[in-house]
Batch of 4 targets.
Target 1
Amino acid sequence: VAKDEAFNFYYQDNLDILNHLGADIVTFSPLKDRELPKSVDGLYIGGGFPEVYASELSKNKSLRRSIRQKAESGLPIYAECGGLMYLVDSLMDFKKRKFSMVGVFKCSVRMGDRLHRMGYVNVEIIKDNILGKKGQRNRAHLFHWSRLANMPKSMSFAYKIIKDKGNVFYDGLMRRNVLASYAHLHFAANVKFARNFINSCKQFKLNYA
C-alpha cells in the first residue's frame, strides 16, 4: 500500500477488510523509497495529492521504473484517483508544469480550474479485471479536479459509472493486471471486490514462483 504525504486517502474499512481476508499489508512511500518492498504480490495506490508532490514523485525515477517493470511482469496493481494520476505518462499541475509519472498508461492528466466530478456513484464492471467479473457492482465516491488527456483510441474502460438517472459515463483504465480509476470504491459495499483482488495477488504469486 502506497502511504505518504502524496498518497494518503484510503477508506480504513478497505484496508481492514483486506487484512481480515488474509492480506499481509506493508506500506511504502512513492516519495522516499527507491524500490518496492521485496516479494510483494500486489499494489494498492490510493488517493491523495500527487499534483502537489509531482516534482518529488517525478524525481524518484528508480521507483517509477520499478513499478512500471512490475506492471509489465503482470503484478496486480489497483489504483484510485491519485493513484491513477501517478500511473499515467505525465501530470500537468495547476501551474501548467508537466512532470513525468510512471508511464503504465500512455496518456496524461491535467489539473483543471474547477472540480470536475464529485458525488456518490454506482459502479458496474463491464470488462473482467483484477477486482471482479463483468456485471458485478459496487458503490464508490468521486472527487477530482483533474481529467485524462491524450488518450489513445484503443484505450478500454473497466467500469460503467451511474451517477444518477441519465448521467452515465465510463472509468477504469486497464492494462495487463493493472486497474486504475477515479472512483474510490468501498469494499464493504461488495466484499467480493476485495476478495477478488487478493485472489489476483495469489495467482500472481503462484505464477511468479
Note: The two ends are 21 Å apart (CA to CA).
Target 2
Amino acid sequence: MKVAIQGIKGSFHHIVAEQYFGKNIDLVECLLFSEMPDLLKENKAEVLIMAIENSIAGAILPNYALIDEYELNICGEYYLPIHHNLMALKGQKIAEIKEVYSHPMALLQCRKFFKNHPHIKLIEDQDTADVAKRIQDEKLMGVGAIASNLAADIYDLEILASEIQTINDNATRFFILNNSANGTTTSTSKASIKFVASNDTGSLAEVLGILAKHHLNLTKIQSMPIIDTPWKYAFFVDFIFNSYSDYSNAIREVKEKVVTLKVLGEYTKNKRS
C-alpha cells in the first residue's frame, strides 16, 4: 500500500503509518501538508495520514480546510502518544546548543522546557525528522532537533534530553484519508461532519440537541471562518454512536435545520492510548 505522510522516515507520521498499516508499506514522503491531496488525485498514494489536533497545541486548522477543499474522506483515526526529545550530533552538551529547529507544533509542545535554556534560539522548520537528518548530513554543530526516538536511531543522533514535552500525557490525533467512502461496516462507530448553521437564534444549540436526542456522543466541535463570507462560520463536528440507525436519523434531521451539511467520514473510533 502506498501511504503518504507529512515528513520523512523517523517522523511521527511515519510512526503512525507503521503502527496503523504495518511495516510492509510504500512510504510517500511530503514536507508540506498541502502537497498531499494531489497525490491521491494522481494515484501516487492510496491513503494519506494527516495530523489534525494535539492535546497541548490544539487543532491544526489548515488541515481541516484541506480535507474540506479537496473532498477527502476520513476512513480512520489514530491517537499517538507524542514523546519529544532534544537531539544533536554525538558528543555535545545542551550548553553548546545555540539553535533548535523543529516543526511549529513540536516547538509549541516543548516551550516550557526551553524557558530553562534561554541561550537556545527556537526556529520553525517543516518537519521534525527532516531536521534530524539535516543535522547528520551536514554535520551541524551547535544545532539541535526536537524529534522522536526513531529519528535519533535512524539518523544516529544523541538524545541530550528526553520527554521534553510540557505535559507528559501528550498525544496527537491523526486522520487516515482517502478519496471516497467505501460504505459502512459493522465496526463503524464514529463520524465527522461539517455544517453551516442558519442565522436563526439558537440554531447551533438546536443541532446539538438533535445529536443528543439520537444518543450521539459529541467528542469534538471546531468552528472555522468561511473565507468568502466574513463573520460566517462552519462547524466541524465529531461524534460517536452505538447504533448506525440513530446516526442516520440524526443526520436526516440535522439536514433540515442547517444551510449545508457534508459528511466528511464514517469510521471506527480509535482508543486513546
Note: The two ends are 25 Å apart (CA to CA).
Target 3
Amino acid sequence: SHGHDGIIVKNKIDNDETIKILTKQALLNAKMGCDVIAPSDMMDGRVGAIRKVLDANKFYDVSILSYAIKYASSFYGPFRDAVGSAANLGKASKKTYQMNFANLDEALHEAGMDIEEGADIVMVKPGTAYLDVVHAIKSAFQVPTFVYQVSGEYSMLQLSIEKGWLDKDVMLESLMCCKRAGADAILTYAAKQIASELNS
C-alpha cells in the first residue's frame, strides 16, 4: 500500500520487523515446493535469517538467490508504474535501503556479507547499466552471479526496435554484454523472444 519493500514503523522501514515477515514467507515458499528463495528487499541480515529458518526446518537443499546488489535506480520506472507502486510511493524514496548508483565498493561489501550469511547466488539489479559491477562481483567472489535486465532497460531497447531506431538484434547484443561481463544467468522481459530466436 505504501510502495516500500518492508514493514513501516513510525514512518521508517523497520529492518528487523521486515526480516520476521521474510523468514515466514521463505519457510512457506519452501514448504510449497520452491527450490530457490529470492529475497529482493535489501534488508540487512535477511539472508542469514532465512538460511537459519530453512535449515532449522530441514530445507537444507533450498537455495537462496540474494538480490545482493540492488541499486536505487530510475530504470525501474515502467515496472513500478505497471504494479502501481510508483503512485503509492509518491515522493518517498527507497534510497535508505537500496544502493547509491555511484557506489561500487558497497556492492562488493553487500555481496560479501550475503555470501557469508549463506547466499548461493547473488543478483545485480539493474543489469545492463551496471556491467562493471557484475564483472567486479564475479571476479571477487567466483559465485553464481545473476543479472536482472529491468523494465526500463528492456523498454528502451524494445521501443527503439518498434520505432525502427535500432535493429531487433540489439536485444540479444545487450544480453550478450551481460554474459560477457560474468553473468551466469539473466532475468529479462525478453526471455521468451530471445529463447525463440536462439532455438530457431
Note: The chain has a mean pLDDT of 86.
Target 4
Amino acid sequence: MHVSLVGLNHSTTPVTIREKVAISAQKLRDSLLLLRCYVTHGIILSTCNRTEVYTMSSHHAEAASIDFLNATTGVSFADLLPHIYLRENEAAFEHLFRVASGLDSMIVGEFEVLGQVRQALAVAEKARMVNLPLRYIFQSAIRTGRRVRDETGISKNAVSISSVAVDLAANILGDLGNCKVLVIGAGEASRLVVKIAKERGASPIVIASRTQERASALAATLGGIPIKLNNLVEELSTANIVVTCSGAPRWILDVRHLEEVMQKRPRLPLVIIDIAVPRDVEPAVGQIKNVFLHNIDDLTEVSGLNHQQREGEIQKAREIIAAEVSKLVTWWRAIEARPIVSDLMRNAEEIRCAQLKKTLRKLPQLSDEERNSLEAMTRSIVTKILKKPIEHLKTNADNNRGYAETVSELFQLNRKKRK
C-alpha cells in the first residue's frame, strides 16, 4: 500500500506553467472523476501556488498521476516533468503537514491553505475517492495545521497574498489615501484586498465580479461599489490600482482594453497586481506606457522577508510536524501490517484448531471445563508465540526491508490464499 504525491508549486514552477495545471473549484469534481480512471483513491489539492495529487494504491502510482495531470490539463509531459516533485509515504505525509501548517506557502503562516486542504478532502469525499487511510492522513494534516497555529506564533499578525499585493501597490504609489482601487473578483482573496485597502485609506473601492450578486454582497459587507464586468473600461479610466483575483479561464484585461484606457489617461500611472492563477491579465499589458503590471510571482521578495521574520516560529512548527508525522507513521505501519497479521493469525488458528481436534479424538471423554481449559491453553500458546513477530511486523512493515514478504513466504500464506 503506497501513498504517492505528485505536485508542482511556486518553488518549482513559474506561474506560466502553474496557471495551466491549476484546477478550479468548479472543475475539481470532474477532475476527480477522471482521476478515478487512473487510481482507485485520490485527493487533488489545487491552490494559486500549487497543484498536488495525492493517491493511494497497491503500487507506485506516480506515473499514473502524471498521466492524469497531462490528461486533465492538456499540459505536455515536456512542460510538466522539469517542475514536478514526487513524494511517497512518510515523505508525502511530511510534505502535506508542512502545507497544512503554512510552511510550504509563499507567505509563511498564511491561514487560507488550511481551509483549502480541508475543502480538498471534503470534495474528494463527495466524489467517493477517499478511503480510510487517506482520510486519516488528511485529517491528521488538518489537526497538525491547527496545532501549529495554536502553539506557535507563525500566524501571528500573518500577512497574506492579498495584503502583500496591497503593499506592493503602496510601494509604487506611496500613500494610498484617496487612491481609487478596482478589485476584480469576489472570493476570499478579493475580500481581504478590499478590507486591507480600506484600512490603508483607499477610496473609493470598486468591486467587479462575473457574478453581480457576489460583487454586491461583498460591497455591502465591507463597503464598496459593485459594478458589472462590462463596465470595466469606464472604471479603469479613473482607477489608480487594480487588483485581480477572479481565476477566470481567460484574460479579463487584455492589451486592447488597456490601450483604450491609457489613451484617456496617458499621464496617470496605473498599477495592476494580478494575483490570480490562471492569470487575469494578458502579460503584454505590462509593455504599455505608464502601466505597472505585477503577477503573483513578483511577490517573492516580500515572502522571503516574511520567512526571515518568522524563522524562530518556523523551527517550533517543524518540531510539531515531526512529532505528528511520527505518530502517523506508527499508525501507518500498523495499517500496512494488518493484512499480513490477519493472514498469519488465521493460519495459526487453523493449525491450532486442527491439531486440537486430533488430540481430543485420542483422549478419553473430557468434561466441558477440561475442554475449555485445553482450548484456552492452546490459544494462549499461539498468541504468545506470535506476539513478538507481530509487534515487529507492525513496527517495520514500511521500512523496505521486506518483513511482510518474508513472513508470507515462510508461512506460505500467499499459497494458502491461492488454494
Note: The two ends are 23 Å apart (CA to CA).
